[in-house]
Amino acid sequence: MELTGLFFYLVSILIAGGIYSLLCLGLNIQWGMGGVFNAGIAGFFATGAYASAILTTSTSAKHIGGFDLPVLAGLLGAGIISGCVGWAVAKICIRLKSDYLAMASIGIAEILRLVIVNESWLTNGSLGLSGVPRPFAGLASGRTADIVFLVFIWVIVIAVFFFSQRLYDSPWGRSLRAIRDNEQSASAAGKDVEKFRIQTFAIGCAIMGIAGGLSAHYFRFLSPSATDPLLVTFLVWVMLIAGGSGNNRGAIVGALSIWFLWSVTEIFTNRLPPEWITRSSFVRMLLVGLLLQYVLQRFRAGIIPEKAPKLRYSEEE
Amino acid sequence: MIRLENICVDFGGVRAIDNVSFEVDAGRITGLIGPNGAGKTTAFNVIAGALKPTTGRVMLDGQDITHLKPHQRANRGLARTFQIPHEFSRLTVLENLMAAASAPVGENVFNVLFRRNLFVAEEREIYKTARDTVRLLELDHVRDEKAGNLSGGQKKLVELGRALMRDPKLILLDEIGAGINRTLLGKLADKIKLLNIERDLTFCLIEHDLDYVSRLCDHVFVMAQGQLLTQGSVEDVRRDERVIEAYFGGGKYEAHS
Known about the structure:
Helix content of chain B: 25-40%
Largest sheet of chain A: none
Radius of gyration of chain A: 20 Å
Largest sheet of chain B: 6 strands, mixed
Oligomer: heterodimer
Radius of gyration of chain B: 20 Å
Shape of chain A: globular
CATH architecture of the largest domain in chain B: 3-Layer(aba) Sandwich
Strand order of the largest sheet of chain B: 6-7-8-3-9-10
Order of helices and strands of chain B: EEEHEEHEHHHHEHEHEEHHH
């Protein structure tokens, strides 16, 4: 009994870890490869979550939609809609320097959150959306359904990983990293800096949207609290910096290890006296901050640092 | 080849360039000299498009390019190096050069994701050019080193290498010699001359060392306090009273000596 409990606890950690891996991969494309500072991850995550939920739930009188589409179509829609929102945002503010872009993106996430809370014709407001379907719901029921979902999510993580690797290991990725390192000389070398950064931002946001969609399908319920920047934006940044900004493997390793630590500390903080429990989330945040300090002191560029892609051409001729 | 027509640049209340016009001729190595703060780098920024002039026009081969952005000018055959090295610090030396190349097929996201075989040929050519350029600049031993870890002089060479990767018509060299040791500097001068003859590359360079300038340049423009003072061969210019005054402050110091 204890063992099966532990097993399913692990399953839930790995599912959330998968969602965080996707967010990290998305942020890695934006920040690790493109140097585009997105501090509004939660906004794009929520956009994707609501997009997928609205597309896949059955009709409801309380809000728009209920298109009853299959989950895969919902996730695709989540990616496309989040990507388009990202593209529109980038079109407006990508020319800002990194710190100003960070501020602007916080503001945009806040706007998206307010839209979600207030536009109840679209999102059912603070009551949230319920009855979001799971993929392959007929395959298993109860707890075993979680295992199906675990497989489903990691298939997507691996697909997105290969997608990101393709971007990284390409002339496009190389030019993007060049722009990240020095915008001025990249444009002197004929790179259309703005175009690259807009593409990067939109692609990253699309991946974050898919992650959001998956979380909606996992919890089957969605409310505006899904946009909590502490759990989404801040933690994802910690994961990427600790794991290795600029390295897709590092992004996944960072996401899994930080999420594992985050979850395991919960076990301990839950045993604290009741008056302490309310404060525990801050203590955990403090611990994560300390851990990040340690990792950055010990491994400057993260656990798995950025590495130049292998050359396709060895010394020939 | 490149012509500045009545360029003025204002930074707030300061006039950095005051009604300057000159033309860099094709096939030549032209120098741009003058004391600190004369507006030389500002002029380069205007040519390369990093800075929009307050008034005036920039012409490339008879076409007005004043409204073009830096990357558009780069794609029309303009290349430059920076006074302070602007290397891609987390890319290797070879990647720095390869990234500078024009890669229209490989820089298309759709191709990169779904049609990877399309850019193989293009990449092979870029690799070969980069490899040869690395050899030309004798950077072979640091080829796979991250550019951020190089010495100041090596970074300057990477800058030059990146400019060469674009197969440009005109290269603007902003104090390429500063921070490079004498031996390497001599070699670099030979290389610039060779590129000028072999590839018919036009150079325009800013340099403080007048001996170095006289070794390289056929023609120099002298700027001082935002204005074009004079032009001619290095020897002529060196004898010019106004140039001596601009560099040494004229009579003020003579009174002391």
